[in-house]
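User: Predict structure, ligand iron/sulfur cluster.
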Amino acid sequence: MHQFHNEPPNNRLQPTPRSNAAESIVTNVKIPPMKTVIYYYTGTGNSLWTSRFLAAELGNATLYPMSLMMNGDAIVEAEAIGLIFPVHMWGVPSLVLNFLQKMQKDPGRYYFAVAVNAGQVSRTLIQLQNHMASLGLRLSLGIDIVLPSNYIPWGGPGSAEKLAKLYLAARGKIKEVAPRIAGKQIAPMEKGPLWQRILFTAIYKMTFNMIPKMDGSFWVDEKCNGCGICEKVCPVGNIVMTAEKPTWLHRCEQCLACIQWCPKEAIQYGKKTPNYDRYHHPEVTVKDVIGDVKVRVDVVNIQKIEG
Ligand SMILES: Cc1cc2nc3c(=O)[nH]c(=O)nc-3n(C[C@H](O)[C@H](O)[C@H](O)COP(=O)(O)O)c2cc1C
Ligand code: SF4
Ligand code: SF4
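Assistant: Predicted complex:
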């Protein structure tokens, strides 16, 4: 859990009302920022970094990993509740859908979401809004944040220049979005073009139930030293160490934390990844991600929901 109690950029100064003209001193009283809870899910740190940056902009925000499946005590006090997660296969990851089932729901709160992705948000936020509506919740604001791709089966994240531009643009967008969240803005969900929403939503639906077994394409090369980090970073306990080597249990979320955080780059996926650069957000450490896993509860046995 990460706490942020920074002063928000939009903190207003309110004059105390004067009871009569004889009082000449006006006292400035700061209105504290609204209490915000952010639930996040991350594989390689982009969504955790986004959550932290946004929390610092908002002030008075508390971060929880979704995998904690907390009992909702924090929600009771929060005015606004945010969901921040990566886009997976052009839609909402199953871990997020499972979390929503378990989360304490309060229709009276202001809900917002940030879909962190590599440029193809597609219909993810509309899917989430519809899903939340089916649970009796209104998603008021859905924001698309683009950061480097961690989808290593298709290649590395790109050049340092490309990454620097993405980080800069993401910072700018989060700064622009924070006052809108603080003002509880209601707006249409951000989305990709129509062709993307039609084509990729079909692919999302086709692949959704195949994801748990896609870990069959992981393998370990001779560089593995048995450190066990891959087992520790997995958010759903899908890796066990057998004879000091990882074994995948076929209930994978495809977050790619294991392959991306392996310090020896010993985990491969298919044939091409030995040639591809690994990626994680430069301001997030493996300890941050392992720290999240320590407080997780077992989400792997919760029934999957079709998106
Ligand atoms: C299985 C998987 C599927 C992905 N699908 C998409 C996608 O449909 N659209 C997109 O823009 N990015 C996609 N990505 C890229 C991630 O959304 C992006 O890199 C994100 O910033 C990762 O966030 P994280 O570091 O918090 O895990 C995918 C990544 C993974 C691992
Ligand atoms: S993190 Fe890499 S080196 Fe460590 S046990 Fe896993 S595969 Fe082996
Ligand atoms: S096995 Fe690897 S890709 Fe699958 S959920 Fe665990 S860390 Fe993520």
